[in-house]
Amino acid sequence: SKKYPEIKRDSRFAELTKEHVTYFHGLLGSESAVLDGVSKDASEDIEPFNSDWMRKFRGHAKLVLKPSSTEEVSKILKYCNENMLAVVPQGGNTGLVGGSVPVFDEIVISMQKMNKIRSFDDVSGILVADAGVILEVADNYLAERNHIFPLDLGAKGSCHIGGNVATNAGGLRLLRYGSLHGNVLGIEAVLPDGRIMNDLLTLRKNNTGYDLKQLFIGGEGTIGIITAISILCPQRSPAVNVAYFGLESFDHAQRAFRAAKTQLSEILSAFEMMDGRTQKLLKNVSGRKMPLEGEHPFYCLIETSGSNTDHDSEKLSAFLEHVMETGIVSDGVLSENQTQFAELWSCREGITEILGHWGGVYKYDLSLPIADLYALVDDTRERLTKAGVIGDDDSHPVVDVVGYGHMGDANLHLNIPVRKYDKEVEKIIEPWVYEWVQKKNGSISAEHGLGVTKKPYVGYSRDDGMIGMMKQIKNLYDPNGIMNPYKYI
Ligand code: FAD
């Protein structure tokens, strides 16, 4: 791997032979066992499976397998395990830590053909679906049935629900509906030796032994492949509103959060924070008109959803009056229709995409005590400024240092857009940033996971005892180490 010269290909793994390919062609057909350079059809190019969403990582898989059933996944893994062929499970390939693409020549197992909704019960709200269903497709299906997927994120148009579970994605609705560890009720998965773990139950309560499915939630494809999930989906709220505020300082953002929790309480469904710099970059790169006049040091986006429009409007009006009168917010706007609703949300959801505009972005997804959340952004900017690497022209690698995130979950996205990835810049930031987080008892990965980028730094958030137990789990379920190697722990 060029990106990680320190990682060497594990020589225990076999290299792909004609015989292997013949087996997979026999099992899946050549359309679902796509070999690099063989297909003349451009849409069958395997390059997209080798490079990640950020275009930061590039693997060298020669074979992509697209199983259509759990049985096929089982046969694939059994064969790979017996033949020491390393694999990478891949969902929508929107992960942000280099976990979904090979490091060397691992076989990509794409879940895109396992895309059926299996069942939905509109009394219990429980959805059972294949892992390869795209999140937005699942949410649209639920919308037609007055329900909502309990997870939402900017990559919804491409990410898979199986990938979401494999990364334990947090996203924009966690504040209201909680984490996937609570909402996922069942998982069907295939272990590396081909065994099918049948835990696709649709029960809210089930205290019959160890809750093994939890290991797959956030397991990042290191102990098996998730083939289906059952998940509890809330009723869709008929009254949904969003407000976008400009604020004077991060302290004001904290006061706004407290006021929102107090006054909006059970209808509060999202609280997102963006600093003025992210909104300025969004405006400059996209050329769009921003919702508020002038510039503010901080912004927050508040969403409410409830079952009664009048009740919600009354609460929102009282809240708006309070935050304006007390000077908690400097300016604000409330969505009045669906178009405005989407426009306000895009001020938050559009950020991830535009930060890559200059060439690359160093991304840190961190959990910190709320009071300390933004101090890290200021400290990082100061550190990079002192080092002389931030500037407006091409002679400076760093464009800016910005912070935004799921403030309601105490989750900061510290982002450093750069003109090119630069080892010197990286050395200034890492491991300093992880030491900073460790001092505050935070987490070096709040929701994006470990993948290849965070693997070397797990020790900043987990002690040796914990890491030892995790390694035992990995060795127990994947003794040959074929599942997503070189990553995680
Ligand atoms: P992939 O990227 O394909 O894979 C991710 C990991 O899961 C890999 O390690 C892969 O091997 C493994 N995997 C995938 N499918 C399976 C499976 N079926 N079985 C076993 N392992 C599997 N994340 C958040 O938590 N919150 C956010 O708000 C958020 N916003 C985002 C916004 C944008 C614009 C983008 C690009 C990403 C965002 N993410 C966010 C990152 C997030 O992790 C992914 O978007 C998503 O959860 C990954 O799903 P995927 O199907 O793309 O998985």
TrEMBL record:
PROSITE patterns given in the database record: FAD_PCMH
Cited InterPro entries: FAD-bd_oxidored_4_C, FAD-bd_PCMH, FAD-bd_PCMH-like_sf, FAD-bd_PCMH_sub1, FAD-bd_PCMH_sub2, FAD-linked_Oxase-like_C, FAD-oxidored/transferase_4, Oxid_FAD_bind_N
GO cellular component terms attached to this protein's record: mitochondrion
Subcellular location: Mitochondrion
UniProt keywords, alphabetically: FAD, Flavoprotein, Metal-binding, Mitochondrion, Oxidoreductase, Transit peptide, Zinc
Primary localisation category: mitochondrion
Residues of the FAD-binding PCMH-type domain: 57-236
UniProt family annotation: Belongs to the FAD-binding oxidoreductase/transferase type 4 family.
Protein name according to UniProt: D-2-hydroxyglutarate dehydrogenase, mitochondrial
Source species of the chain: Massarina eburnea CBS 473.64
Phylogenetic placement of the source organism: Eukaryota, Fungi, Dikarya, Ascomycota, Pezizomycotina
